[in-house]
Structures are given as structure tokens and as C-alpha cells.
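Example A, followed by Example B.
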Amino acid sequence: MVDLGERSYPIYIGESLLGQTELLQQHIPGKSALIVSNETVAPLYLEKTRAMLGGLRHEAVILPDGEKYKNLEVLNRIYDSLLRNRFDRNTTVIALGGGVVGDMAGFAAASYQRGVHLIQIPTTLLSQVDSSVGGKTGVNHPLGKNMIGAFYQPRAVIADTDTLDTLPQRELSAGIAEIIKYGLICNADFFSWLEDNMSLLLARDKTALAYAIEVSCRTKAEVVAADERESGKRALLNLGHTFGHAIENGMGYGVWLHGEAVGAGMCMAAIMSNQMGWMSDEETERTIKLVEQAKLPTKAPPSMSAEQFINLMSVDKKVLDGVMRLVLMKGIGNSVVTSDYSPEDLNRALQQSIAA
């Protein structure tokens, strides 16, 4: 449960949730729904989702799959369907897919007729542990990732772990990056559990995955409840993301998966924290080793320069009054949002983090 007073909502995690008609319908207050999915997910799970809607009037819009399509032009396809089918303010938008679908459907729901109902059905590990929870929605702009969007909470999140059976291994690893993040920011015991159980997660052990998803969602729910609109503590959830967003933008959206960029970004944050004397050599090595065990990159791409990183990082939502804030670490499980570093600190970390 994400505790936001009257806007609180449940998170369901488990097997065989797709197909439970009552589970979905109890969170749909009106008589109509628009399912938003993509070309990869729709052939697998669209019919199951349609069946859960019973006799409710509904339509589906299928988007192309990939981060490079997370833009205003493709977003218009959702608005086109909402308007063409004359959906009113009591309709429900259902996001069926990964983080891109969730972000775009969420933003459409937030802005169509100034806000309609939203339900998230995440089908990737990354979206189940992170992007479907907390209400961040939006699209990318050529000059910056997620710079156009809104905070908009769903009525429910339904995470069916069976959908992970069809997830490519690369996507599974990308989701694990966000799971590692929760251990690093505030839960050293969970980080140690991940060190002991990474092989089970990569092997898609259902018990291990369910536990990791539950801990991740609970952690994020607690942070969001304390700081819904990212005025303070919630910014900790961006560990590795300022570096990672620069990689995604610099390489071209979709070349690196979001989780891959975050994995390298967390290692970059660990290296910078270590160089500043905030994080021990041992904890830095543990961080990099765990990211590596998850089959994720630990270094920035060699084609990017430190100067390019700095230029791209300066176009970031965590920049306030011209000052770039970074999420760094004072040990595993103890992250901080800070601008207390010098340009030399950042440049030195970037130089060491870029792959030779």
C-alpha cells in the first residue's frame, strides 16, 4: 500500500493475477477503459486483460516498443484514441507493459481532460519494482530524459510475476539494477541478501523474485509517502540516474536500456563517493561486483567524454537554481543528495568511470 491519504492505493504482487476479473474491476469506478500496451506485450497479455474487463466498454491502443518512442509524437496516439472513442472523465487508462508504457499512459491519464483514472499493470521487472509505483509519469525530449511529465498516482498496481517468464534476460538484468538501488540507498541488509541470492534472481526463482519485488515496492512506497513530489528524501531514489540519464541521452534513447545505464551510474556514484572519502574501498568494490554479478555494465561507454557527461547532466530535474545535485553514498545503505562536491571531484570520477 502506498499511503497518500485519500489517494492511497494498493500494490498487488503474485502469480496468476492476470485473469482475476474482480481484482481489476474493483478499481475501475466508471464504465469504460482504454488499455495502453506495446507491440511486444500486447500479443502476450492483451487478451487476458480484455477478459478481466468483462462487459465494460473498452478499447486498446498499441504503441511501438522502445525508449526511443517515448516522446510527444507517439504520446498523441493515446490522446487520439481517447478522443476518437469519446472517452469521458470517468474512464480508466490501463497501462499494460514496461516502464515506457507506464510512463506514457500515466502522463496521458494525468493530462486528458485534466485527469482520468489510471491503473498500472507492469510486465517487466524494472516497472514492477520501480516505475509503476510512485506516480512519476512523462516522456523524453531530445534535450533531456523525462523532462516533460507529471506526478500522477494510479488507483492500483497489479504486478503479476508470471509476466517475467517471457522477459528477455537483458531486460531482467535491467530490472535488477533498480532492485540493487534500494539496497544502496537505505537497506544494507537487503544489499547483503542480494549478494547471497543474485544467482536465484537471474534464474527467475519465483520465491526470490517475489521477495525482491516486495522489498523494493515497500521501500519505494515509504519514500513516496514521505515525499510525494520529490522535494527532499524522494530524490534518493535517483541514485545512479543522473549519470545514467546522461548515458541514455548521449548514446541515443534505447541503445542502452534504462537499467543498464543506472547500473553503470551507480558504479560511477560509488567511485565518486570513494574518491571523496565518503565510501570505503571495500564497499565500493562490493557495489561494483554486485552490479557486475547482475550482468550489467559497470563503466560508462568509451564513446562518451567527461565534457559530454557534464553538459548532459546539467539538463536534469535535480538541478536547482543552476546547481547540480547528485545522489552519492556514505556507505552501503546510506545515500545522500548533495551539491557538496567540487568540479574536480566530478571530473576525476568521470575520467575513472569511462571505459577504456
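Example B, a separate protein, is given below in the same form.
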Amino acid sequence: MDGGRRLLQPVNQGFTPAAGLRPAGTGYALETASLPAMLPTLSRRRNRRPGFWASTLNLLNKKGAGWALTLMLLLGTGAYGAVRGGHYETWITFNGAPADILARGLGLGLKSITISGQRELSSSEILEVAGISELNSLLFLDAQNVRDRLRSLPLIKDADVHKLYPDRLMIDISEREPFALWQRDGQVMLISAEGTVIDVMRDQRFATLPFVVGDGAETRVGEFIKILDANPDMREQIRAGVLVAQRRWNLKLTSGIDVKLPEANPAQALASLARLERDGRVLEKDIVSIDLRMPGRAIVRLSEDAANARAEAQSRKPRGKGGTT
């Protein structure tokens, strides 16, 4: 016994195994016999959920894991370099997007494209605007994007795009009809009958359309057409109509002669010119312009050479009575 009259004995003897604490004399003794059995259990519980870094180290210690990570790093670096260097975009240009390649392999490519409704545009022009080629697939083709691209072309009024699986695409468009040409700031534009600008003239397919020039001429093109329709014999010789001060028309003939029409009854004035042409071939003369603004009169302006020749001819004529030869 110690000074406190407690029994001295080894803590691992004389106790019946029990969990926790139990009476031992006047105090309590901790039963330590169960601790050795508990420690392995606690240790096993900690090993069931290793930390992130422990898992990473275990992975690296496994056979081949280091080589796999190295290969992944090299592939990632190569892909990054290809994108930054533009090689990936070049590859896509010639082969298509990876998703489209996969879809084409599954039989969802574009084997048939039907285009209807076009009059002025060719099929190749429509496909170019739509951004469609044999590298696309029907599965990943964005029909709404194709519609928006087609509608952005001024010559196209509307467009419908339908996907017919597994490999057919249908495009139906409606075009704005070019009615005349209008020159603005040195640039020739296609316009509708109402004067709406459709597009810039890009080729010569519309070169035979009526041609107007001047501020406001695009909205009065119908008025110009009526003048031409009233004089079909002159129409082939008229290259353009120039609106002057938004009041009256001048005509530019294919020969280069300018014809000045009056503000009132311009079609009637042009008809008088047609009579002069039939009777005297006036438009075949060496002239610069014809002014028809005064009713019943035609004022002709000769070219410089013709004016000089006329002046010289007049000087050679004998003078009247009292003059010298």
C-alpha cells in the first residue's frame, strides 16, 4: 500500500477485461488491456482515406505511372504548341473539325444538298456564303447559323434550311429582284423597283439594267423607266439617266452625247429627238450635247474640233456686198 492506503499492484493484473473505467478500491483504474487491440483498428481507419498528396505519391510509385504522366505532359505541350502556331487550324481547314470527322465516319455526312429558289445566285455562291462544304456533317451543322449567314447577303430576302437525316440538306431561298443600277459616290449599287439598295454590283451580269445617277435618283428610278418605255426606239442608245438637282433628267447616250430634258414632259421632248434622228441622223454628227429644255427647239453644241472646222468653213465663204473676197 502507498501512503494513501491504496493497493499497489501492476495495472495489467487482477482486472477483468471491460470497456472504459470500473471501480478499483477507493479509486478508478483505466483498463489498458484493450488498448493494444484498439490501436491497430485506429491505424486501419486512418489508412482507409489517404490524403491527396499521399495518393499522388502512391500513383507515381506504381509501375508505369511516371511514364504515363510524362506522355500526357508531352501530348498537352504539343497540342498547345499546335494551337498557338496555327497548325491545328490548318489541319481543320483540310480535314474538318474532329466532331465532323467522327460524324462522317458514322454515315452522317453531307451526301446530298438541294438548293431551290435562286435566280441570280449560283449554287456555289450560296454554299460559299453559307459556309458549307464536303467537310461538314449533317449532325453538327447549325441550321440557324446557315440561315443567318444566307440572310446577311443583301440579294437574299429570306432562306429556309432543313436537315433530313442521315445525310441530306435542303436550302430554299427567295431573292430580291434587281431592278436598276444606281451610282453613288463612284460606286454602282443594285437597287429594287422601290429604290432599296440590294448590294454592290460585283460583276457584269446586271450590266444591262437601267442605270441612274445622282442624289435621289434611286427613289425616282420608276420615273426614268417610264421615259424609256415611251421611246423604245431611243432606249438602246441611252446609257444612263442623271437626275439634276432632283428636278429633271439628263440622258447620257452610248455615243457620249448629253441630252438635256425639260422638267415638264420629258418623254415628249425625247420623242422630238427621236424624230430628228430619223430625219437627219443628228446623233451621228460630231456634237457634244443637245438641249431640249425649250419646247419646239433643239440647241446643239458641237465638239471643239467640229466647232473649229465650222468656223474655218465660215471664214472661207465670200462676204456679202461691200465686203472683200
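On Example B: Residues 10-47 have pLDDT under 50 and may be disordered.
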